[in-house]
User: Which sequence fits this backbone?
């Protein structure tokens, strides 16, 4: 078997939830990408995860929990969050000290936050993505994390983009949140993206940069107005 659930470390993976502090609604949760089995082994065996200081998301290292989004390296467990752990502390340390077996690595001198983790907890059911998506970090809250069924549920729903997302989903329209779109070598992260034919219809709000050919709305535009424009574009892309 190739599943991360059967890689010989079941005892380390399956903690007893009653021995752990429960996640609270207002807890701060950082979702990080896990794209290789070696780093996953370090999490399981040594109980830490490294975040590069240069690319750390806002708020690092002051999060309460860390969750892991598995990529295609995890075969049938890919594109999903199966595990999370409480952050018990952190250190600021150079990579060469974190991984002394690689003293000549190109980033050996770079600084990292080494997040010290409690026991791994199993997210059942997992939080899944219906399709491959590019992920670096996702910041969410305890209530959204515990109630989420798919990755899009981790994002807030109180903003104009969030309210529009809810309306689109209620109508059965496929839509993604915080979606990466590449245009002529430039990468954009748009508020919403709707699949259209072989491509995407990007939707942005306010001054957020976005690709040409998409829809842009003001932050104060009513969701119903936005919805009508989106439906018109979907009918005649």
Assistant:
């Amino acid at each position: 078997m190739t599943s991360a659930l059967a890689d010989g470390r079941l005892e380390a993976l399956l903690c007893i939830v009653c021995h752990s502090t429960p996640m609270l609604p207002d807890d701060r949760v950082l979702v990080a990408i896990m794209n290789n089995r070696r780093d996953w082994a370090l999490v399981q065996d040594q109980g830490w995860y490294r975040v590069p200081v240069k690319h750390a998301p806002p708020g690092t290292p002051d999060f309460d929990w860390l969750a892991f989004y598995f990529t295609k390296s995890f075969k049938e467990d890919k594109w999903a969050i199966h595990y999370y752990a409480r952050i018990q502390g952190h250190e600021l340390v150079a990579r060469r000290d974190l991984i002394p077996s690689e003293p000549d690595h190109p980033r050996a001198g770079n600084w990292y936050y080494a997040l010290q983790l409690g026991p791994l907890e199993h997210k059942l059911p997992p939080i899944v993505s219906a399709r491959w998506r590019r992920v670096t970090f996702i910041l969410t809250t305890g209530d959204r994390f515990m109630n989420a069924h798919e990755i899009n549920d981790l994002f807030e729903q109180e903003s104009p983009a969030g309210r529009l997302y809810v309306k689109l989903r209620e109508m059965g329209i496929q839509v993604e949140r915080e979606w990466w779109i590449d245009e002529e070598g430039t990468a954009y992260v748009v508020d919403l993206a709707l699949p259209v034919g072989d491509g995407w219809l990007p939707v942005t709000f306010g001054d957020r940069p976005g690709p040409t050919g998409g829809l842009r709305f003001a932050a104060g535009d009513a969701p119903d107005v936005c919805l009508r424009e989106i439906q018109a574009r979907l009918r005649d892309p």
Residues 4-19 have pLDDT under 50 and may be disordered.
